[in-house]
């Protein structure tokens, strides 16, 4: 019976949907993104339950599954919000309002908003597809000052967060299934998810936990030669530095080796540097950009194809919801650059609010500006607190039975290894869960703390980990550590062999 006949006969058979799980894009079905996966979904359900009843053993859900600082009470930087609000409501800058507004906003915020609006027009209008030229010039100045080597605004693309930049560069790099992209294990799942979507071949390489998650070029070479021997066309290497989920910060020497490796192996280097200001041991483990290290090397290496990504979501800014970022494309073939521009123009433009924050991130108040002191003090307060919290949580994890945890030299996460009793692994198995997932679900049920199992990032076979941010507010941090400690003790007592 056709649908029309069933309606005519009044049998009310539900009409078969045109787009279904069995016929939709299979690549989308293959995508996994653990940061917002099973744990996060369960955490949301528990949050709803908490809102309705008081029947859970904790009062709040603590989202340590995602590096989203303002969700966990981190305050926005005042100057940034002042300029953003003036750009949104330019009537405040009219001469007749000036006397009132200048009591609320410092002179440099008013001036910056005027300059930005001169270049932007209205924040409600589409901008240049590559990003507002004035803002790209400011990004180029920032890179030039950071590295001591010139950057060209024509090579900079403003993006909706670093994610959109990564996705468009990967979509340009991937020709078909045979294209291989080297990604770290463990990795931030944006990479594995995008490669699934594009139906490309991830070529994993291991970060060495026993060496503070550093990268071993000999292992890289092995990964590439095995993949190439199997017919995979390995074209690019993703490096996340400082690392997510691992918190490593690469030494300059290690970076030079990686550059030489990419150069000789004809591999494009993709440097995800979104955590470049989250550096907690600046003397021992400073941040170096790949662009700077590359340009400091012999000029033969200078035409290595390098794309570097940055974001307003991280650092001390934490404006994740505004979706702003950029990438710098270095030594990319001009014909490919035209294709990058074409792809950017298909989405018309990155959102203008995000672009404004990129401008402010790259050109914050300077010494002598009215907002300088306050800006500095806000950045410093957030930075010092993040550093203290990273150490506290690291000490907490290292005090737990069967747990070891490397320090976070950078980024916002710790990635402890947990050695689980055989009984716990068997129980997890019986529930159809990976052991680390099982542990994290039990943690969520007992404490309301939502973390992400190591299997969501990839981990060396036979090891179990989880990733937690150290973003919970500092005044709640002791309680947070105590809850985790109590949970772990109870878990181990329940399952100890
Ligand atoms: C390593 C890494 N790259 C990129 C991103 C995405 O950042 P954005 O918010 O700028 O898209 C994240 C977010 O957590 C990240 O950890």
From TrEMBL:
GO MF, one annotated term: pyridoxal phosphate binding
Cofactor entry: pyridoxal 5'-phosphate
GO biological process, any: L-alanine catabolic process
Aminotransferase class I/classII large domain segment(s): 117-473
UniProt keyword annotations, A-Z: Aminotransferase, Pyridoxal phosphate, Transferase
SUPFAM superfamilies assigned: PLP-dependent transferases
Lineage top rank: taxon: Eukaryota
CDD domains (UniProt xref): AAT_like
Gene3D superfamilies named in the record: 1.10.287.1970, Aspartate Aminotransferase, domain 1, Type I PLP-dependent aspartate aminotransferase-like (Major domain)
Keyword Lipid metabolism: no
PANTHER family: ALANINE AMINOTRANSFERASE (PTHR11751), ALANINE TRANSAMINASE (PTHR11751:SF29)
Assembly and binders: Homodimer.
Family recorded in the similarity comment: Belongs to the class-I pyridoxal-phosphate-dependent aminotransferase family. Alanine aminotransferase subfamily.
Protein name: Glutamate pyruvate transaminase
Native source organism of the sequence: Umbelopsis vinacea
